[in-house]
Amino acid sequence: MDYCIRELEGKQAHDPLFMKKMNNHKSPSSPSSTDPHRRVFVNGPVIVGAGPSGLAAAACLKQKNIPSIILERSNCIASLWQLKTYDRLRLHLPKQFCELPFMEFPSNFPTYPSKQQFIKYLENYAETFHIRPKFNETVKNAEFDSKIGCWKLKCQSSFKGDVTTEYVCRWLIVATGENAEAVVPDIEGADEFEGVIRHTSLYKSGEEFRGKRVLVVGCGNSGMEVCLDLCNHDATPSLVVRDSVHVLPREMLGKSTFGLSMWLLKWFPLRLVDRFLLLVSWLLLGDTSQLGLDRPTLGPLQLKNLTGKTPVLDVGTLAKIKAGHIKVRPSIKKLKRHTVEFVDGRSENFDGIILATGYKSNVPYWLKEEDMFSMKDGFPMKPFPNGWKGKNGLYAIGFTKRGLLGASMDAKRIANDIEQCLKAEAKHGS
Ligand SMILES: Cc1cc2nc3c(=O)[nH]c(=O)nc-3n(C[C@H](O)[C@H](O)[C@H](O)COP(=O)(O)OP(=O)(O)OC[C@H]3O[C@@H](n4cnc5c(N)ncnc54)[C@H](O)[C@@H]3O)c2cc1C
């Protein structure tokens, strides 16, 4: 997509208004080709992040002949999937709910594609739509310059030493994801603990923990799956469960739980569907509170809608807990050299701790803007489905807490909106 910059610089060179605005605004020390501080004018949207969301946005724009560029801090597309996930990961939801716009998963892929298959799908997607992100470019700062009516992004290249580039564009699409930075809790005594302490973003497989006692902190989908992986590698995992959690079977009545829920919601109110899900879960999994996994008072779908908290889709962990291969433990009070002290007063020795404590958005660190994103959690302040559009050509994709399905919806809306804007301008100009 490089041509976007070059060609559009050419177009802008013939746009006296644009050139006047930009020239008026140039700093006295205008960049030269040898200057470590370069400035690039982009006439199309700039997308920050080359995960599935960024790719989907670029593809939808491409379908409308709107060129864009993607800036990506790592050296590959879908860096979360390629660099920060464990080996045994599969899509949690069936493939038809995870496809990006205009491209289905290959029919020979299983219902729940493996991580490698998903990455292959995304690489193929980027290839099909000729998406070539600019890698090793970290956006450090972005703000709207009302004098020229454009966004200015300061970008640091981790590849070319200290080069910083300023991108100037009219549309900014934030696609940095809900999972941009690992959340690592402060645990008393962590410095003293002599075993490994590792966030799940750095956990690959249970192989290195064979024969070891491992404490997994956090009982979301990742924590549950890491426990299962550790069991399968002959480690002895325990699971810290601090909050209540809905565990549902991944499939019920021969269908995926997610697909069945979506179908039922077409006919029945959410509360009734929640009751149905809980009844079937109870029949299939039994009373999870007997295992130390209390259910929240709100139903799984209601909770998801209100807080974004995803129910755990069980892929076999519960059976291991029932069989006593995984122990459930309360919150950690503090760590000592080899020991974990729990809030119930019990102490146990562990060789390692895996933190399945989730991720957070990094938008507040780099986007200087107060209307659209909450600076507290880095998510759009308007609730779904209205969080995708802000002011001055600012958009968000992939912040709906609705996974890849939500990102696809955002991508189509954003491309339509930018197309409308261009059409209106063309009409106005003619
Ligand atoms: C273990 C796990 C399993 C999951 N399974 C599913 C599933 O089965 N189905 C589903 O729908 N969802 C699933 N998800 C949710 C997941 O968030 C989405 O699938 C998907 O990765 C979101 O895509 P994204 O592009 O919005 O964000 P990401 O994939 O996180 O991509 C964001 C990109 O932005 C880049 N970036 C961040 N900050 C900057 C910056 N300042 N400058 C430049 N680049 C930057 C990052 O390097 C990254 O490449 C899962 C998540 C995890 C962690």
From TrEMBL:
GO BP of this protein: auxin biosynthetic process
Catalytic activity: indole-3-pyruvate + NADPH + O2 + H(+) = (indol-3-yl)acetate + CO2 + NADP(+) + H2O
SUPFAM superfamilies tied to this protein: FAD/NAD(P)-binding domain
Keyword vocabulary terms for this entry: Auxin biosynthesis, FAD, Flavoprotein, Monooxygenase, NADP, Oxidoreductase
The protein's annotated pathway: Plant hormone metabolism; auxin biosynthesis
Enzyme Commission code(s) on record: 1.-.-.-
Superkingdom of origin organism: Eukaryota
Family: Belongs to the FMO family.
Record-given protein name: Flavin-containing monooxygenase
Organism encoding this protein: Pisum sativum (Garden pea)
Highest classification ranks of the organism: Eukaryota, Viridiplantae, Streptophyta, Embryophyta, Tracheophyta
